[in-house]
Design brief:
- This protein is mainly β and 231 residues long.
- The chain is built from 3 helices and 16 strands.
- The strands form 4 sheets. A 6-stranded mixed sheet has the order 1-2-9-8-4-5, with no helix packed on it. A 4-stranded mixed sheet has the order 10-16-15-12.
- 16% of the residues are buried.
- It is a single-pass type I membrane protein.
Length: 231
Protein backbone atom coordinates (compact mmCIF):
# COMPACT_ATOMS: atom_id res chain seq x y z
CA UNK A 1 0.00 0.00 0.00
CA UNK A 2 1.33 3.45 -0.93
CA UNK A 3 1.10 6.20 1.69
CA UNK A 4 2.17 9.73 0.72
CA UNK A 5 3.88 8.32 -2.34
CA UNK A 6 5.79 5.75 -0.27
CA UNK A 7 5.14 2.01 -0.49
CA UNK A 8 4.29 1.00 3.08
CA UNK A 9 4.80 -2.65 4.05
CA UNK A 10 3.24 -2.02 7.47
CA UNK A 11 4.77 -4.00 10.40
CA UNK A 12 7.23 -6.83 9.85
CA UNK A 13 6.46 -10.20 11.44
CA UNK A 14 9.76 -10.36 13.32
CA UNK A 15 9.55 -8.90 16.82
CA UNK A 16 12.57 -7.83 18.85
CA UNK A 17 12.58 -8.71 22.55
CA UNK A 18 15.25 -7.56 24.97
CA UNK A 19 15.84 -7.21 28.69
CA UNK A 20 16.34 -3.68 29.98
CA UNK A 21 20.04 -2.85 30.13
CA UNK A 22 21.03 -5.29 27.40
CA UNK A 23 22.12 -4.48 23.83
CA UNK A 24 19.94 -5.12 20.79
CA UNK A 25 20.33 -4.66 17.05
CA UNK A 26 17.21 -3.78 15.05
CA UNK A 27 17.67 -4.53 11.35
CA UNK A 28 15.77 -2.80 8.58
CA UNK A 29 13.58 -5.65 7.35
CA UNK A 30 13.37 -4.16 3.85
CA UNK A 31 16.71 -5.74 2.93
CA UNK A 32 15.76 -9.17 4.24
CA UNK A 33 12.17 -9.75 3.15
CA UNK A 34 10.82 -7.06 0.84
CA UNK A 35 13.29 -5.80 -1.78
CA UNK A 36 15.92 -7.54 -3.89
CA UNK A 37 18.89 -5.47 -2.88
CA UNK A 38 21.19 -5.02 0.10
CA UNK A 39 22.33 -1.92 1.94
CA UNK A 40 25.55 -1.51 -0.06
CA UNK A 41 23.75 -1.75 -3.40
CA UNK A 42 21.09 0.70 -2.22
CA UNK A 43 23.75 3.19 -1.11
CA UNK A 44 25.56 2.88 -4.44
CA UNK A 45 22.24 3.62 -6.16
CA UNK A 46 22.04 6.91 -4.19
CA UNK A 47 19.19 5.72 -1.98
CA UNK A 48 19.07 7.02 1.60
CA UNK A 49 18.05 4.96 4.61
CA UNK A 50 16.20 7.03 7.23
CA UNK A 51 14.97 5.82 10.62
CA UNK A 52 11.91 6.99 12.56
CA UNK A 53 10.41 6.19 15.97
CA UNK A 54 6.63 5.93 15.96
CA UNK A 55 4.97 8.27 18.46
CA UNK A 56 1.25 7.57 18.29
CA UNK A 57 0.18 8.24 14.71
CA UNK A 58 3.29 10.32 14.01
CA UNK A 59 6.79 9.27 12.99
CA UNK A 60 9.66 11.27 14.48
CA UNK A 61 13.16 11.15 12.97
CA UNK A 62 15.65 9.43 15.27
CA UNK A 63 18.60 11.50 16.44
CA UNK A 64 21.58 9.18 16.82
CA UNK A 65 23.73 10.19 19.77
CA UNK A 66 26.41 7.59 19.09
CA UNK A 67 26.69 6.79 22.79
CA UNK A 68 23.62 4.67 23.58
CA UNK A 69 22.03 4.57 20.13
CA UNK A 70 23.82 4.49 16.79
CA UNK A 71 23.11 3.77 13.13
CA UNK A 72 25.32 1.15 11.50
CA UNK A 73 24.67 0.21 7.87
CA UNK A 74 21.17 -1.34 7.67
CA UNK A 75 20.59 -1.41 11.44
CA UNK A 76 20.24 0.63 14.57
CA UNK A 77 22.15 -0.49 17.67
CA UNK A 78 20.96 0.06 21.20
CA UNK A 79 24.00 -0.29 23.42
CA UNK A 80 21.72 -0.51 26.44
CA UNK A 81 17.98 -0.77 25.81
CA UNK A 82 15.69 1.09 28.20
CA UNK A 83 11.97 0.84 28.90
CA UNK A 84 11.37 4.08 27.00
CA UNK A 85 12.68 2.36 23.86
CA UNK A 86 9.55 0.19 23.63
CA UNK A 87 7.59 0.71 20.43
CA UNK A 88 7.77 0.65 16.66
CA UNK A 89 10.72 1.69 14.50
CA UNK A 90 10.32 2.51 10.82
CA UNK A 91 13.06 2.41 8.22
CA UNK A 92 12.49 4.34 4.99
CA UNK A 93 14.57 3.82 1.86
CA UNK A 94 14.17 6.63 -0.64
CA UNK A 95 15.40 9.08 -3.23
CA UNK A 96 13.52 11.70 -5.27
CA UNK A 97 11.57 9.11 -7.29
CA UNK A 98 11.44 6.01 -5.10
CA UNK A 99 10.27 5.33 -1.55
CA UNK A 100 9.56 2.17 0.44
CA UNK A 101 9.25 1.59 4.18
CA UNK A 102 8.49 -0.99 6.84
CA UNK A 103 8.16 -0.94 10.64
CA UNK A 104 9.64 -3.26 13.27
CA UNK A 105 8.36 -3.70 16.81
CA UNK A 106 10.60 -3.87 19.88
CA UNK A 107 9.59 -4.86 23.41
CA UNK A 108 11.88 -4.03 26.34
CA UNK A 109 11.08 -5.86 29.56
CA UNK A 110 12.39 -5.80 33.11
CA UNK A 111 13.46 -9.11 34.64
CA UNK A 112 10.90 -10.79 36.89
CA UNK A 113 11.54 -10.07 40.56
CA UNK A 114 14.42 -12.20 41.79
CA UNK A 115 14.95 -13.73 38.34
CA UNK A 116 17.44 -13.33 35.50
CA UNK A 117 14.71 -13.32 32.84
CA UNK A 118 11.30 -11.92 32.01
CA UNK A 119 8.53 -14.50 31.68
CA UNK A 120 7.00 -12.24 29.00
CA UNK A 121 9.81 -12.78 26.50
CA UNK A 122 10.84 -16.39 27.07
CA UNK A 123 11.13 -18.79 24.19
CA UNK A 124 9.08 -21.97 24.52
CA UNK A 125 10.22 -25.50 23.69
CA UNK A 126 8.53 -28.84 24.30
CA UNK A 127 10.10 -32.25 24.81
CA UNK A 128 8.77 -35.75 25.36
CA UNK A 129 10.03 -37.79 28.26
CA UNK A 130 12.71 -40.39 27.29
CA UNK A 131 13.25 -38.60 23.94
CA UNK A 132 16.28 -36.51 23.01
CA UNK A 133 16.10 -32.70 23.05
CA UNK A 134 18.41 -29.88 21.99
CA UNK A 135 18.00 -26.46 23.59
CA UNK A 136 19.66 -23.69 21.59
CA UNK A 137 20.61 -20.14 22.51
CA UNK A 138 18.37 -18.24 20.06
CA UNK A 139 18.89 -14.93 18.25
CA UNK A 140 22.53 -14.38 19.20
CA UNK A 141 24.09 -14.22 15.72
CA UNK A 142 24.57 -10.45 15.89
CA UNK A 143 26.59 -10.73 19.09
CA UNK A 144 29.11 -13.36 18.01
CA UNK A 145 32.62 -12.33 17.01
CA UNK A 146 33.71 -13.83 13.65
CA UNK A 147 36.14 -16.76 13.79
CA UNK A 148 35.97 -16.83 17.57
CA UNK A 149 34.28 -19.35 19.84
CA UNK A 150 31.64 -17.65 22.00
CA UNK A 151 32.07 -17.81 25.76
CA UNK A 152 28.64 -18.98 26.84
CA UNK A 153 27.38 -19.68 30.35
CA UNK A 154 24.24 -21.74 30.93
CA UNK A 155 21.89 -21.54 33.91
CA UNK A 156 18.79 -23.40 34.99
CA UNK A 157 16.30 -21.35 36.99
CA UNK A 158 18.99 -18.62 37.00
CA UNK A 159 21.48 -20.79 38.91
CA UNK A 160 24.64 -22.61 37.90
CA UNK A 161 23.92 -26.30 38.18
CA UNK A 162 25.91 -29.51 38.02
CA UNK A 163 24.54 -31.19 34.91
CA UNK A 164 24.28 -34.96 34.88
CA UNK A 165 26.98 -36.71 32.88
CA UNK A 166 24.74 -37.63 29.93
CA UNK A 167 23.93 -33.97 29.17
CA UNK A 168 26.25 -32.21 26.70
CA UNK A 169 26.87 -28.48 27.20
CA UNK A 170 28.05 -26.71 24.04
CA UNK A 171 28.83 -23.04 23.43
CA UNK A 172 25.48 -22.45 21.77
CA UNK A 173 23.27 -25.34 22.88
CA UNK A 174 22.46 -28.03 25.44
CA UNK A 175 21.84 -31.61 24.32
CA UNK A 176 19.72 -33.88 26.53
CA UNK A 177 19.85 -37.40 25.05
CA UNK A 178 17.04 -38.76 27.24
CA UNK A 179 14.67 -36.21 28.73
CA UNK A 180 13.51 -36.73 32.31
CA UNK A 181 10.56 -35.09 34.04
CA UNK A 182 12.90 -32.95 36.14
CA UNK A 183 14.44 -31.43 33.02
CA UNK A 184 11.46 -29.12 32.62
CA UNK A 185 12.05 -25.49 33.56
CA UNK A 186 13.84 -22.33 32.48
CA UNK A 187 17.21 -22.49 30.72
CA UNK A 188 19.16 -19.24 30.34
CA UNK A 189 22.21 -18.76 28.14
CA UNK A 190 24.44 -15.79 28.90
CA UNK A 191 26.95 -14.25 26.49
CA UNK A 192 29.43 -11.49 27.25
CA UNK A 193 29.18 -8.76 24.59
CA UNK A 194 31.69 -6.02 25.28
CA UNK A 195 30.83 -4.66 28.71
CA UNK A 196 27.25 -5.93 28.45
CA UNK A 197 25.52 -9.27 28.86
CA UNK A 198 23.18 -10.84 26.32
CA UNK A 199 20.76 -13.34 27.82
CA UNK A 200 18.15 -15.61 26.27
CA UNK A 201 15.79 -17.82 28.25
CA UNK A 202 13.93 -20.89 27.01
CA UNK A 203 11.16 -22.54 28.98
CA UNK A 204 11.20 -26.30 28.44
CA UNK A 205 7.91 -28.10 28.97
CA UNK A 206 8.21 -31.86 29.35
CA UNK A 207 5.32 -34.07 28.29
CA UNK A 208 4.82 -37.80 27.85
CA UNK A 209 2.77 -40.85 28.78
CA UNK A 210 4.68 -41.47 32.02
CA UNK A 211 3.97 -37.97 33.34
CA UNK A 212 0.31 -38.27 32.36
CA UNK A 213 0.12 -41.64 34.15
CA UNK A 214 1.64 -40.20 37.33
CA UNK A 215 -0.70 -37.19 37.22
CA UNK A 216 -3.71 -39.49 36.83
CA UNK A 217 -2.57 -41.56 39.83
CA UNK A 218 -2.16 -38.38 41.91
CA UNK A 219 -5.60 -37.14 40.85
CA UNK A 220 -7.14 -40.51 41.74
CA UNK A 221 -5.44 -40.52 45.15
CA UNK A 222 -6.76 -37.01 45.88
CA UNK A 223 -10.23 -38.12 44.81
CA UNK A 224 -10.07 -41.14 47.12
CA UNK A 225 -9.02 -38.98 50.08
CA UNK A 226 -11.81 -36.46 49.43
CA UNK A 227 -14.32 -39.32 49.05
CA UNK A 228 -13.20 -40.87 52.35
CA UNK A 229 -13.56 -37.53 54.15
CA UNK A 230 -17.13 -37.17 52.91
CA UNK A 231 -18.13 -40.61 54.21
Amino acid sequence: MAVDGCIDWSVDLKEYHVLAGEPVRVKCALFYSYIRTNYTMATNAKLRLIWYKNKGDAEEPIIFSGHRLSKEDDSIWFRSAEMEDNGFYTCVLRNSTYCVKVSMSMAVEESDEGKCFSSKIRHLEKAEITHGKMITCPDIEDYLAPYKQPQMTWYKECERVEWRSSITINNTHIWIPEVEEGDGGNYTCELQYGSRLVRRTTELKVTGQEIERVNKIKSFEVFQVEKAELC
